[in-house]
Amino acid sequence: MKKSLWNLYVWQLKDVILASLIAVLFAVVCYATVHSVVFAVTPLVTPFGFGDIAIEFVFGIFFFSAIFSPYIMQKPGVATVVGTLTGLIQILMGSAFSSTVLVSALVQGLSAEAVFAMFRYRKFNWFTMLLAALACTVGSFVLAWYRGLWTDLDPGFVATRFIIRAVSALLISGIAAKFLADRLAKAGVLKSYPLGAKYKGEPDES
Amino acid sequence: MSDFLFRINPFYKFTFLVVFATVITFIHSFWMNVWVFGACIFLLLTGTRPAQHIKALKILIPVTVFAVSLFFSGLFFGGGATGPFGGISTASTQSGMNMATRFYSFVGIGLLISLTTDPYALVKSLRTHAKLPRKFAYGMLAAIHLLPHMKTEYQNARLAFRVRGVPVGPLSLKPIFAMLVNAFRWSEMLSIAMISRGFYE
Asked: For all residues of chain A together, what is the average pLDDT?
């Protein structure tokens, strides 16, 4: 048996708990974001027809967990599983968007997974992180296009939305996610994961 | 007044409704949206208790605000219209109505899921009926039960920073980071504790 490869695919209990923990944390963040933005900011810009667009400025938050966790664990399936769990936990919390959030979360997870799989789960650097964020944007956008009937909206309006969403995704789930994971690794809490492995043997910083 | 929606197997109800919502994603029809939302409200009224009706109303008020904003998006940018207060036509009104009712139909299905499903029962049902691996079912529950502790930890971290004279605002990142460090540490300790108490996969 090739031990190293086997280790890559098997999920230990600690991986599962960390994955669930990240999913729960970001489910709370997503839930708070979507409900505060949709139900507080949106009414202010409604009369101009821009109400729907307010959420795009923080859309990167929804991809955060699906990009953050594979960067830490660096094994196949993490992006999909954590992405889907984030959606599932939002349903358990009683989100108003229960019927659609699971499929959106699955699509976002699969999009991020596709990018990391393209590099065979070996390259985790700025380029792959930003590419994964962009892939999530495209995946979620195509789904929202069909779901929200954007097919008969003005193309310029839809393009504006895409650009805002892409910038938000790159900033929040690309750059901020990598930054946060690196900081956590430096603090010494990820020593048993691939990302924090190089800090093994050093005393904790925190 | 009955509560038959609560007695359906949570996993089957959940799967059916999510698949149904996915299927209607690909059907664009105004009347279908109206019928789906009507059916969901009918089921909610007949299949749940009054406490749930009040909850549903509480969710539907902000949802209506959002639906109105979707209507305006369609009115100003749909069906050939290209900007606020310009080029409003029958087609763009139609497009706005379509978008708003569509959102209502999704929310109707969502209400059926979220108001009639007990989280713990759903996880248990996923475990028995969907054959979700044990470690995922219990790992998820463990993580969910960590949430209140993380909240306490966050407050403690804030307090610790303030005692040391570090100014912390409501959105300050330092206490959040301190909380994350501890939460990650707990996740590893928790798995060790679970295994040492006889958890098997």
From this structure: 86
Q: Which of B114, B123, B135 sits opposite A94 (nearest CB)?
A: B114
Contact at CB, A50 and B73, closer than 8 angstroms: yes
Tell if the CB–CB gap between B191 and A12 is shorter than 8 Å: yes
CA B139/CA B134 separation, integer angstroms = 8
Query: Predicted ipTM?
Result: 0.86
In order of A60, A68, A192, B54, B138, the CA distances from A74 in angstroms are: 21, 10, 12, 45, 23
Q: Cα B49 to the chain's mean position, in Å?
A: 21
From residue B60, alpha-carbon distances to A95, A110, B70, B110, B111 in Å are 12, 31, 15, 11, 9
Are the Cβ atoms of A100 and B115 closer than 8 angstroms? no
Rounded to whole angstroms, how far apart are CA atoms A21 and A13? 12
Which residues does chain B have within 8 Å of residue A23's beta carbon, measured at their own beta carbons? 140, 143
A12/B178 CB distance under 8 A: no
The answer to whether B62 faces chain A, any CB pair under 8 Å, is: yes
CA distance linking residue A111 with residue A137, whole number of Å:
9
Q: What was the pLDDT predicted at A205?
A: 54
**Closest partner CB to A99 (pick from B18, B78, B177):** B18
Round the CA-based radius of gyration of chain A to a whole number and report it: 18
pLDDT in tens, B105-156: 999 999 988 888 888 888 889 989 988 888 888 888 888 888 899 999 999 9
CB neighbours of residue A164 within 10 Å: 17
What's the CA gap between B52 and B72, in Å, rounded? 30
**Cα–Cα nearest to B53, from B9, B94, B5:** B5
> What's the pLDDT tens digit per position in A121-153?
888 889 999 999 999 999 999 998 888 878 778
Crossing angle between the packed helical segments A64-73 and A98-118, to the nearest 10 degrees:
40
